[in-house]
Amino acid sequence: MVLELYLDLYSQPCRSVYIFAKKNNIPFEFKQLSLFEGQHYSEEFGKINPLRKVPAMKDGDYQLAESIAILLYMCRKFKTPDHWYPSDLQKQAKVDEYLSWQHAAIRAPASKLFWFKLMMPIITGNNTPQAKMDSTLEELNTSLQLFEENFLQDKNFIVGQEISLADIVAIVELMQPLGSGLDIFEGRPKLTAWRERVKANIGKELFDEVHELILNATDMPKKMEQSVMLPHLKTTLQKC
């Protein structure tokens, strides 16, 4: 029995799950959902994940939500190579350290930049105030400096010389602002070199496949015109 993975590849956590499953030849059925069409609020999906979020996983009668939990489940069930989530206590703790830190430090500001720069004008008809853009970019730049100096240091990857779950989770988040036309890798040769190592390790074809939607996100206005989520998104963004 193969896993069922409910994903929308506009979503960073969904991309991490997709990359990991594909890279490790884990058998799964790709159940594609559209967040912009509100498919996560359907009665059918509510039975899969009452939290109404993607990614979600179904393994027979067993259901699981949250990307980190799903990644670790796949690691353990399919006994993937040790470098992804090392059995060595201290290396494993370093993966855990990054996964714990990144939610607020990387994911939050990187996601905000994407929404503020690309989605705010589409959804509300107004540009994000420049002061808000500047403060969010400053927040991310501070975190990127910490990422380079504290986590990456002089290593090839976050935990050492081999790729881990930490690198996959990091790369999908840092690719998100590029979808809005904001290249956060520009002027950061160390970060750019790390991205290229991650891309080479994952495989260019898989890397490009999983990021195709987000890197063409400037086509989003056409998709948003008919979105049932538009009123909800507008109200949410106006509170930001």
TrEMBL record:
Broad enzyme group: transferase
Catalytic reaction list: RX + glutathione = an S-substituted glutathione + a halide anion + H(+)
Pfam families per record: GST_C, GST_N
Domain GST C-terminal: residue ranges: 88-220
All copies of domain GST N-terminal, residue ranges: 1-82
Subcellular location: Cytoplasm
EC number(s) given by UniProt: 2.5.1.18
Biological processes per GO annotation: glutathione metabolic process
MF terms in GO: glutathione transferase activity
Keyword entries, A-Z: Cytoplasm, Transferase
UniProt xrefs under InterPro entries: Glutathione-S-Trfase_C-like, Glutathione-S-Trfase_C_sf, Glutathione_S-Trfase, Glutathione_S-Trfase_N, GST_C, GST_C_Theta, GST_N_Theta, GST_Theta
GO CC annotations, alphabetized: cytoplasm
Main location: cytoplasm
Organism superkingdom: Eukaryota
Subunit structure: Homodimer.
UniProt record similarity statement: Belongs to the GST superfamily. Theta family.
Name of the molecule in the record: glutathione transferase
